[in-house]
Specification:
The radius of gyration is 18 Å and the shape is globular. By secondary structure, the protein is mainly α. The two termini are about 30 Å apart. The N terminus is likely disordered. It contains 16 helices and no strands.
Length: about 280
């Protein structure tokens, strides 16, 4: 894994890298890695991809649940993997597989003091709202923004699992304090923040570069190709906070001049869509 760590564009000290490398990083199944590799290989037909996906029954079942949720925008209900692959196309299929793979690789339950349901519901809301905002701001990357919104805080769940005694209380304090910066608190204790370790996870999983950048830079906006929708939804702290929605609306109006009623409409639909997506993702 060292080559992946050393490829980071950020200047991370060797001491910090040494500390991060001590973690046991979660991995994707062979089927997931094979499907992602095939999707990124020009000229590969969709039929072999569907056949590879079907080799993992658990992955296939969860993928079908997600396909039939509102997150992937299909008007026709899908009953088998081959039909899903054809209807989705490469970009949406990659988003689907990554959504399932990451939710499976990260801890599913059993972190005392850390509300994983709230974590995934918030991730689902960010994804749904990022997709809705992207449709207005940069339609060509709507699917990418949806995926980035879902995955941008994977470092939080990872640290909550690996550093339970130190991280869970820190995260709880941040949830209660509107003035606190989570990344600053993380850096003061660990020497790195959730965005940095999330970026390392993304590289370890060989995610596309745009996703690595979106995870690493969703708060700092350092990446030149970071979609605006991804940055806007990073302002959402909790899935059930009206104040967070107000913050996103204000930012969207201030930076892009969007109509307030339009953004609130996107937020309202995103909340409904996110609920369905979360249930499909965790079901």
């Amino acid at each position: 894994m060292l080559s992946l760590f050393s490829s980071r564009k950020k200047d991370t000290s060797s001491a910090v890298l040494s500390q991060i490398e001590a973690y046991e990083l979660p991995s994707f199944s062979a089927t997931v890695m094979n499907v992602l590799a095939m999707l990124r290989r020009p000229g590969v037909e969709m039929q072999p991809i569907a056949e590879e996906l079907q080799k993992d029954p658990g992955l296939s079942v969860k993928a079908l649940r997600l396909v039939n949720s509102v997150g992937f925008g299909l008007s026709t209900r899908v009953s088998n993997v081959q039909h899903a692959v054809v209807l989705l196309g490469r970009s949406r299929l990659e988003c689907l597989v990554l959504s399932v793979a990451v939710s499976t690789a990260l801890p599913g339950k059993g972190i005392p003091g850390f509300d994983l349901e709230a974590y995934w519901r918030t991730a689902a809301l960010r994804a749904s709202m990022a997709g809705g905002l992207a449709k207005r701001l940069h339609p060509a990357t709507e699917i990418e923004s949806f995926t980035a919104g879902l995955l941008q805080d994977i470092g939080v769940a990872f640290l909550a699992d690996r550093e339970r005694e130190r991280y869970v209380p820190l995260y709880a304090r941040w949830r209660e304090d509107d003035s606190a910066m989570l990344s600053a608190q993380e850096s003061s204790i660990f020497g790195f923040d959730h965005a940095e370790i999330g970026g390392l996870l993304a590289r370890n999983w060989q995610l596309p570069e745009f996703l690595v950048n979106a995870i690493e830079d969703h708060h700092t906006r350092e990446s030149e190709d970071l979609d605006e929708a991804v940055w806007l939804v990073s302002l959402i702290k909790s899935h059930d906070s009206d104040q967070d929605i107000d913050t996103v609306v204000d930012a969207a109006l201030r930076t892009h001049g969007l109509d307030e009623s339009l953004v609130r409409g996107i937020a309202q639909k995103a909340r409904s869509d996110a609920d369905q997506f979360y249930k499909a993702l965790q079901g």
